[in-house]
Amino acid sequence: MKKAEFIRALRMELDFLSKADREDVIKYYDELVTDAVDNGKDEAMFIAGLGSVVEIARNVKQDHSFLDSIRNINFSSGAKEVIGITAKVLGYFLFVILTIVLISVGISFVLSGTTTIILSIISIVVHLDAEVMVTITKVGQIIFGSGLTIIGIWLFIWYAKYAKKFLDKIFNKLQEVFKDKEGTAHV
Amino acid sequence: MDSQLKKGMLELLVLASLKYQDSYGYLIDQEVSSVIDISESTLYPILRRLETQGFVTTYETTYNSRIRRYYQITKAGLKKLVESENDFRETKKIYDYILR
């Protein structure tokens, strides 16, 4: 079989491929045979040594499905990366929201706490002639205000100390989950 | 040899043939077939596979006023070769025991 005939037969056998993939195979064999002949090989004998076009097509077909599966894995790990990034962005978004909420709650607690303390002290000082019961109420308000203030300050400290760590932990967990999924995908 | 094993060996042989210099289809074919018995029809899928997996890249140059595709090993390809050396040491231990 001469090269032209071989190429024509091979092209017919490879009709299951897309045009680009088919021409890639053809180009390879065309070059192979040409180089063999350039190196002094007998054209017909070299082509005979390549095996039948049916066999070549079968080999290509087997590997074609393999290549497809590789492409799918690449795609899914790419998709996982996107999901990972989405989770991270969402996480940071929640982190920012939580920060804003905590800070505003903290500020309002501290403000209302200190205001209660100051107002109570003033009302005690101003109403010197007030009854004992009223004074007790004011003292109660001072304690309540102090409590609010302490909670507010505590929220600030907790946020500064643990919130970052806590969220980092969640991120790590998320990443582990994604890694696990990737691992099973490769098996 | 088991066909799956042979496929793996062919991949390594092709990579090894590209270890020191870039090469093209026919030359790779000649080098590999000097080591292992192949029907040439199996090398195209191997090369495609290596390319898709990122172990080799290709480029085209003109030779004798026709286009020839050259294959070049990548860093990942070289790494795979090194890994195969470690695999070989492990396999050798096993066969040393089998053939004792």
Describe the structure.
The complex is a heterodimer of chains A (187) and B (100). Chain A is 89% helix and 0% strand. Chain A is mostly helical and 187 residues long. The longest helix of chain A has 74 residues. Chain A is rod-shaped. Chain B is an alpha+beta fold and 100 residues long. Chain B has four helices and three strands. Chain B has a three-stranded antiparallel β-sheet. In chain B, a hairpin with a 2-residue loop joins β2 and β3. In chain B, α1 packs across α2. The interface between A and B is medium-sized, with 25 and 21 residues.
> What is the mean pLDDT of chain A?
78
> What oligomeric state do these chains adopt?
heterodimer
What is the beta-strand fraction of chain A?
A: under 5%
Question: Which strand-content bin applies to the residues of chain B?
Answer: 15-25%
Query: Rg of chain A from C-alpha positions?
Result: 39 Å
Secondary structural class of chain B: alpha+beta
Q: Kindly provide the radius of gyration of chain B, computed on alpha-carbon positions and rounded to a whole number of angstroms.
A: 15 Å
Helix fraction bin of chain B: 55-70%
Shape summary of chain B: elongated
Give me the count of strands of chain A: 0
- By DSSP (H or I, 4+ residues per run), the number of helices of chain B equals 4
Helix content of chain A: over 70%
Mean pLDDT of chain B: 89
**H-E string of chain A:** HHHHH
List the strand order in the largest sheet of chain B.
1-3-2
Q: How many strand segments of chain B?
A: 3
